[in-house]
Amino acid sequence: MAPVRRVSSKNFSFRCHREKVSDRDNADNVYSVNRIAIHPSGIFTTAGSDGMYNFWDKESKQRVWKPLHKTNAPITVTAFNRTGTMMAYGVGYDWSKVRWAGVTTK
Question: Taking CA 95 as the corner, what is the angle to CA 93 and CA 97, rounded to the nearest 5 degrees?
Answer without folding.
Answer: 100
